[in-house]
Design brief:
By secondary structure, the protein is of the alpha/beta class. It has helices spanning 9-47, 60-73, 80-98, 112-121, 133-141, 161-169, 204-209, 211-217, 229-238, 248-253, 301-312, 344-355, and strands at 102-106, 126-130, 147-154, 158-159, 173-181, 185-189, 199-203, 222-226, 242-246, 256-260, 270-277, 287-295, 316-323, 331-338, 357-367. The strands form three sheets. Strands 1, 2, 3, 4, 5 and 11 form a six-stranded mixed sheet that branches. The chain has a five-stranded mixed sheet with strand order 8-7-9-6-10. The radius of gyration is 24 Å and the shape is globular.
Length: 371
């Protein structure tokens, strides 16, 4: 090809086809190595007389390290989030060859928690919906699901109190976090006449996240809170007088039409989810730790909790309170901060917290969400 001359469309397509063939061959090789990893893990287990249920096929810290290196190597033109998503799906498919990951999430299908589960574990995971946050915790505690995904915080509406209350009484550990940008849609059934709408349904937090938009555009229609956005979508699919505030995923699952898109009041609306499991996660190199602390009800108690973080230069990323379940006018502090519980500095802070508290419960250390 002459210097400065652009290749023809036919030439470019030939190159793309050749690269596709190489990519497919490399992915197949990676999948073959994943199968060998499974075989080695099982052989080591059998040699020690263990059972297959003890094998840890999915390693959150290992996946976080792999995706971190993927992002470090990325020079475009695809942005970091896109390239990480592609590799996460490759990892998910390869992991399914070892053993599909079994995940419980707060449902029904079509909720943002459903989306978060798939974003974190990939499309090859076996995900199942449960009707409440408590049911997700119970499913994992009983060993019926390996992992659970629950919402914990929205950038507009704050903490999800049901999740915090379950952590206070559950032995489960946090092993990961997921951040999801939230775009809300107003959805109706395919045969619904918008002039006949009597109610707009959604989870109470979703309705709150678009209350200004709803008040402006639908002031004369009842805004009704239901158990989840997925439940709202199901109602809209079966009742021509109901519209739902839900996700585009819910629209696809329940065959709904979109009346208006991106109706959230804030453009930075996002929700954070936590992944729970039975075991602690080793350090990944970029971790966060969450704890529950019960303090004595006396002056300076909160200051004594926070002072070690300031002195050691450890960044707090979240602090919230909930009423104590055992004592009137006493509170539990949910504290989240950078670092892993095995880090010497963090371990020292945790020892200090124990000295100044009635109770310290480490909920887990886990890889920080990449996006």
């Amino acid at each position: 090809m002459a210097e400065g001359k652009l290749p023809t469309l036919a030439e470019l397509r030939v190159r793309i086809d050749a690269l596709d063939e190489e990519l497919q061959a490399l992915i197949a090789k990676r999948a073959g190595l994943a199968e060998q990893v499974a075989a080695v893990k099982l052989a080591e287990l059998h040699a020690t007389g263990g059972s297959e249920s003890e094998v840890e096929f999915y390693r959150p810290e290992r996946e976080a390290q792999v995706l971190g290196r993927v992002i470090e190597r990325n020079n475009g033109p695809l942005d970091d989030a896109v390239i990480a998503h592609i590799f996460r799906e490759i990892i998910s498919a390869c992991l399914a060859l070892e053993k599909p990951v079994d995940v419980a999430f707060f449902g029904p299908e079509g909720t943002y928690t459903h989306q978060a589960a798939l974003k974190h574990f990939g499309q090859s995971a076996v995900v199942s919906a449960y009707p409440s946050i408590s049911a997700v915790f119970t499913q994992v505690e009983n060993g019926l699901s390996k992992y659970g995904v629950v919402p914990v915080e929205n950038s507009t509406e704050g903490m999800v109190t049901h999740t915090l209350d379950n952590f206070a009484k559950s032995p489960l550990k946090i092993c990961g976090e997921v951040q999801l940008r939230i775009h809300l849609q107003l959805l109706i059934g395919r045969n619904t006449d918008v002039s006949r709408l009597k109610s707009i349904c959604g989870h109470q937090q979703a309705l709150a996240q678009c209350q200004t938009w709803l008040a402006t555009h639908w002031p004369n229609v009842e805004h009704k809170a239901v158990s989840s956005n997925g439940a709202a979508a199901q109602m809209a699919a079966s009742d021509p007088t109901v519209a739902a505030v839900a996700s585009s995923m819910a629209a696809e699952l329940y065959d709904l039409s979109c009346v208006s898109s991106n109706i959230e009041d804030r453009t930075d609306n996002a929700t954070r989810f936590l992944v729970v499991a039975e075991k602690d996660v080793p350090p990944s190199g970029d971790d966060k730790t969450s704890v529950i602390v019960a303090t004595r009800n006396k002056p300076g108690a909160l200051f004594k909790l926070l002072e070690p973080f300031d002195r050691e230069g450890v960044m707090l990323t979240r602090i919230d309170t909930r009423p104590s379940p055992t004592e009137a006018w006493a509170y539990l502090f949910f504290i989240e901060f950078e670092g892993h519980q095995t880090d010497p500095v963090v371990a020292g802070i945790l020892r200090e917290l124990e000295e100044h508290s009635v109770m310290v419960k480490v909920l887990g250390s886990y890889p920080r969400a990449l996006f």
